[in-house]
Amino acid sequence: MLCGLMFFRKGEANFKSNNVSTIAIIKAYISRIDDQTIDEVIKLMVPNLQKYQKMKKDIALLEALNELELSEVENATTLSQRYQQLLVEETTLKKEYSNHPGYLNRLYGIVCDLYIDYNKFKGTAVKSKLPQLKQVLEDVDYENLYNFSSLTNNYI
């Protein structure tokens, strides 16, 4: 007997069959993920990754600049305009950074989950490559991030 049962609820579908080919066909159909989808998600995430990575680096720079304990006159004569501007924006930058503690790590987690889930659908185990992905995330380069996500078996 070759029969199949399907049950649907909002956000859930259950398929039962005594024919493994039927289940394989259903699995193949619902697990098709267009690589373009991954590309679009990464494109949407890169600006936030870049913003919060820059903010993290700016906070680290501010801490180093504050350790110098320079006077305002010394700041004006010895520091680059970028560093002077960072000191001017210090309060605003620190407030924004403190309003979103852990946000960058959450973004990293989202990308890592996307990468794992995408490859799980393709039948590829990739958890061993997560440290490499995290390094790519630290660099926040769109091309490297996309290449890492789409070329799992050939990258690094």
Tags for this entry?
2 strands, mainly alpha, two-stranded antiparallel ribbon, 70% helix
What does this structure look like?
There is one protein chain. The chain has 156 residues and is mainly alpha-helical. The chain folds into two domains: 1-32, no CATH class; 35-150, no CATH class. It contains eight helices and two strands; from the N terminus they run ββαααααααα. It has helices at residues 20-30, 35-68, 72-78, 81-88, 90-99, 103-122, 130-139, 142-150; strands spanning 4-9, 12-17. Strands 1-2 form a two-stranded antiparallel sheet. α2 crosses α8. The longest helix is centred in the N-terminal third of the chain and has 34 residues, at 35-68. The radius of gyration is 23 Å and the shape is elongated. This is BBS7 helical hairpin domain-containing protein. Pfam families: BBS7_hp (PF23349). InterPro entries: BBS7_hairpin.
Going by helix content, strand content and strand pairing, the class is mainly alpha
Strand arrangement, major sheet: 1-2
Helix amount: 55-70%
Please report the total strand number as a whole number: 2
Sheet with the most strands, sense and barrel status: 2 strands, antiparallel
H/E series, N to C?
A: EEHHHHHHHH
Strand content: 5-15%
Spans of at least 5 consecutive residues whose pLDDT stays below 50 are 151-156
Global mean pLDDT: 82
Please give the count of helices: 8
Task: Report how far the terminal alpha carbons are from each other.
Answer: 49 Å
The geometry reads as elongated
Q: Whole-number radius of gyration?
A: 23 Å
Domain BBS7 helical hairpin: 35-148
Pfam family, one: BBS7_hp
Protein name: BBS7 helical hairpin domain-containing protein
InterPro entries: BBS7_hairpin
